[in-house]
Amino acid sequence: MRSQRLLKLIIAHTVLIVVCALILIPFAMVVIASFRKGNFPPSTLWLNPDQWTFDHWRYVLGIPYREILNATTGETKLVNPTVPPLHWFLNSILVASIASFGIILLSGTSAYAFARLKFRFRGQILTGLLVLQMFPQILTLTAYYRILNNIGEHIPWLGLNTYAGLILIYLSGISINIWMIKGYFDTISPSMEDSARIDGASRFQAFTKILLPMSAPIFAVVFILSFISMISEYPTASVVLQESANRTLAVGAYSLLDEHEKLWGHFSALAVLSGVPITIMFLLCQRFIIGGLTSGGAKE
Amino acid sequence: MNDGAVHITDLVKTYTDDRGRPTFTAVKKINLEINNGEFMVLVGPSGCGKTTTLRMVAGLEKITSGTIAIGERVVNDLEPKDRGIAMVFQNYALYPHMSIFNNMAFGLQLAKKKKDFIQETVSRTSKALGLDQMLERKPQALSGGQRQRVALGRAIVRNPQVFLFDEPLSNLDAKMRVQMRSEISRLHAQLGNTMVYVTHDQVEAMTMGDRICVMKDGLIMQVADPLTLYRQPENLFVAGFIGSPPMNLLKGRVEKGDGGLTFKETAEEGGVSFPLKGPAEALAAKYVGKPIVFGIRPEHLTEENKNGSHVPVTSTIDIAEPMGAESLVYLRAGTTNLIARIHGETLFHMGQPITVYVNLEKVLLFDSETENVIR
Fold first, then answer.
1. CA-CA distance, A9 to A1, in Å (whole number)?
2. In this structure, are B27 and B83 located in the same domain?
3. Among residues 19-48 of chain B, which lie with CB inside 8 Å of chain A?
4. How far, in Å, CA of A138 to CA of A116, rounded?
5. Domain shared by B253 and B232, yes or no
6. What is the mean pLDDT of residues A134-157?
7. Cβ proximity of A193 and A185 under 8 Å
8. What DSSP string describes A187-209?
């Protein structure tokens, strides 16, 4: 009996440890690579004391550092980082924040319409959205390029190489969010909005004052998911943003892995840094993701 | 003052699908006059259109055709807030993210009333409802009865001409329901407003309503005060719906014999038959040889033979439910099932033979085809 339990325990823990290792080891390798002298791809979990350096982080954060030019002569050069990495970082946060807010705004109002209003082809449109979502957005990339190019000729701030243009494209991918939010709205009894309307609220007030506060958890989830996906989004951003200074983090980071010179150390530091805004955003949103927000209002 | 009278004229509600095609007619051209200050109960089985009617009065449901007027005003195209109504929902419909105070004050705040006024009104109302200790709490922290009381308070602070109740007690437990029932009745007595109350529970309807409107399949079956409804139902549906346990309804036909008319139950074998004497005889005269339904309330089946208008039925006891003051006895006479409400002094046993007497003066006869009572 006891040995059987022990065996179960060992097996369970082995599985868990292996899974954890699969997740954590690559991450640790990247972190290590970001502190390793020279530009080596992530490959080790251990650094000798003489292999440590903060140069990659200095580069990423725009702090001047000395780079060894010739190991035998000990010749060094003061490198004054040209700041792009921090720039990319801020670009990403800007784009991801604005686009995520936009997504919440658009998908929240659309979801309300699908959940509460009656109109022709409602069901068909809803299904259509789901079908559209199944095609990867990358398929439409060339079309986006042409569209932004054309728009840019008339409205320069919304064309290629603008954040507004990139955000515009990001805002088009909201159908899955509409579905998620609609699903949440469907679980909230419409009688509360009925009640609000009798209390004198307009439809819009019933939406903003009653339904929205109760739906905070789903909006927090949608916001985080959008934010994460946009911080790490590469294909669209790489096509739309072509100037070095206005790249987003993902595009910028990839540019460090040039065909001729792969700056793995810089890349690793930047990759670790990109996790920071996501983590912060997650911690900020987490307090909204709580259960029981709608309980107590209606009894079914 | 005639402000709170509700006039419903030729009201129709047809639901439509997303494309606007009609799918289902819930309310079929009904007419109903609700007097100012009256407690009107709409009662009927689920799907009878009572809630739809109420929601149209509230303005939550578009009217397909017909008119609804409150006081002298036709309110068809008015927003709910402009109709002078307040509504209490079955599932409370409180705002879960707001405190009790804000729940009650929400309407006044939207109407941009002065802060002092809101404070004063809410605290006065909450005190009257015994909620003044929990104004800062969220609905989640309240019991079902308290929540429904908050919903009631929210309606009261709006100071409406007409209160609308949509099955407000259905979600409460039995004890709470009885208590809230009397609270609402008391509220009606105090405020004197018109109240329209929807329920599927005929006990609630009988105990609370000044008048009761019985509905079925989108049509009004009968509108009357509780006792009239109970004693003089106009049709089979009302007779069977009002009263608990329900009226005994036996299908059969009128036959003419030597001693006068008799009712003979239609049954494969052993149906009961009763002589039709007294008032029933005259009523049945036109129905000789025709199918009718014979109706008798359980309390009009007695154990004692009081006078000449009682006829005996020999039967055996199927189930007896002693309630203390009285017993409900489910009888079997041949293949016929009857329910009798008999005094509670003796304990009955299953299978025990018993002779009960039908009080022929209380018999109601219904036309089988039209299902209307025979007068």
1. 12
2. yes
3. 19-20
4. 32
5. no
6. 89
7. no
8. TS-THHHHHHHHTT--HHHIIII
CA atoms of A145 and A140, how far apart (whole Å)? 9
Residue pair B156/B86 in contact (Cβ under 8 Å)? The answer is yes
Could you tell me the residue range of the domain that residue B341 belongs to? 248-367
Architecture of domain A84-286: Orthogonal Bundle (1.10)
Max Cα distance, chain A (Å): 84
Question: Is the pLDDT confidence value at A18 over 70?
Answer: yes
Best residue in B16, B17, B18, B156 for a mutation probing chain A (most A CBs within 10 Å): B18
Write down the pTM of the prediction. 0.84
Query: Closest residue of A to B166, CA-based?
Result: A191
Residues of chain A with CATH 1.10.3720.10: 84-286
Which residues in chain B are contacts of A192 at CB distance < 8 A?
A: 93-96
Complex confidence, ipTM: 0.84
pLDDT tens digits for range B128-186 = 999 999 999 999 999 988 999 999 999 999 999 999 999 999 989 999 999 999 999 99
Q: pLDDT by residue (tens digit) across B313-358?
A: 889 999 999 888 888 999 998 888 999 998 877 888 888 899 999 9
Question: B110 to chain A: which residues are within 8 Å by CB?
Answer: 199-201, 205
Lookup: tokens for B28: 């079929």
